[in-house]
Amino acid sequence: MEKVLLYLENLLKKNDCIVVATSGGPDSMCLLHLLCELKDKLSLKLIVAHVNHKLRRESEEEALFVSEVCLENNLIYEYMEILEYNDDNLENDARIKRYEFLAKLVKKYHAKYLMTAHHGDDLMETILMRLTRGSSLKGYSGFKKELKEENYTIIRPLITETKKDIETYMNIHNYKYYIDKSNFSEKYTRNRYRMHVLPFLKKEDSKVHHKFLKFSEELMEANTFIESYVKELISKISDKNGIKIDELIKLDKFLLKKVVEYTLSQIYIDDLFLINDKHTNLIIGLIKSDKSNNKVNLPNNWQAIKSYNYYKIVKINKEDDYEYILEDKLILPNHMVIKKVKEKDGKSNYVIRLNSKDIKLPIIVRSRLIGDKMEVKNLGGTKKIKDIYIDEKIPLEKRKEIPIVTDSNNTILWLPGVKKSKFDVESNGIYDIILSYEEE
Question: Whole-prediction pTM value?
Answer without folding.
Answer: 0.70
